Amino acid sequence: MHSDFKQWSHMFKLDPDREISDEWLEKVCLSGTDAIMVGGSTGITFDNTVDLLSRIRRYEVPCVLEVSDLDAIVPGFDRFFIPMVLNAGNPQWIVGHHQRALREYGALLDWSQVATEGYVILNKQSAAAQITEANTALDIKDVEAYARMADRLLHCPVFYMEYSGVFGNMEWVARVKGLLKDARLFYGGGIDSPEKAYQAAAAAHTVIVGNAVYDQPEQALATVQAVREAKAASNMQ
Ligand code: 1GP
């Protein structure tokens, strides 16, 4: 098990605002996934985040927080991912909330635990797109420009193509991976079967499975092995 996220190929994203039984949480944590990411768009509180973290901590799997709410920055995670939504229409989601968080906690942070995610939200219907007022009417050249911005201009360690709720355009994902120099490409959205997980893992560095954990848990669990197979196949090329 790696503690360096640059080695991770598969993550489950668990939402503190959604119910998961102890039985399924155990299966998810013991699935062989590289890490659990805690995050969501609505209803995230300090209390439900602490609660989920303490349940995940029964297991050895690395656990990271994707910070989306200033009031729910809970200490004790292995790492903190900070999304910077590059195509947000509301600038609060680019630097505004971040500045307020740093005003509060900037002097206390352990920077070695913090990683910025340059985010582009591509599904107009998603809660994340609505909250951030994301401009999702983008062509591949727009997305490539955001990828270069994250990677080369801002030096974000992660560029995240977020299709949350729908399966994205894998040709675009693969093209973006090809142009990144240092950033790792995270892909999330609509992975609800091992087949889709395999395709996404072939296109991106790291895939994130969210909704399927709740809606199709058996299928979600099968994505771990599919990602492993996709990575093994690409290593052999
Ligand atoms: C959401 O990218 C993740 O932030 C995963 O998306 O919920 O569609 O799997 P899904």
From TrEMBL:
Gene3D superfamilies, per database record: FMN-linked oxidoreductases (3.20.20.390)
Cofactor field: Mg(2+)
Positions of Mg(2+) binding: D15, S41
Residues reported to bind sn-glycerol 1-phosphate: K13, Y160, M161, E162, Y163, S164, G165, G190, G210, N211
Pathway the protein takes part in: Membrane lipid metabolism; glycerophospholipid metabolism
Pfam families named in the record: PcrB
EC number of the protein: 2.5.1.n9
Cross-referenced InterPro entries: GGGP/HepGP_synthase_I, GGGP/HepGP_synthase_sf, GGGP_HepGP_synthase
Enzyme superclass (EC): transferase
GO MF annotation list: transferase activity
Function: Prenyltransferase that catalyzes in vivo the transfer of the heptaprenyl moiety of heptaprenyl pyrophosphate (HepPP; 35 carbon atoms) to the C3 hydroxyl of sn-glycerol-1-phosphate (G1P), producing heptaprenylglyceryl phosphate (HepGP). This reaction is an ether-bond-formation step in the biosynthesis of archaea-type G1P-based membrane lipids found in Bacillales.
Homology family: Belongs to the GGGP/HepGP synthase family. Group I subfamily.
Protein name (Swiss-Prot/TrEMBL): Heptaprenylglyceryl phosphate synthase
Source species of the chain: Paenibacillus vulneris
Gene transcribed to yield this protein: pcrB
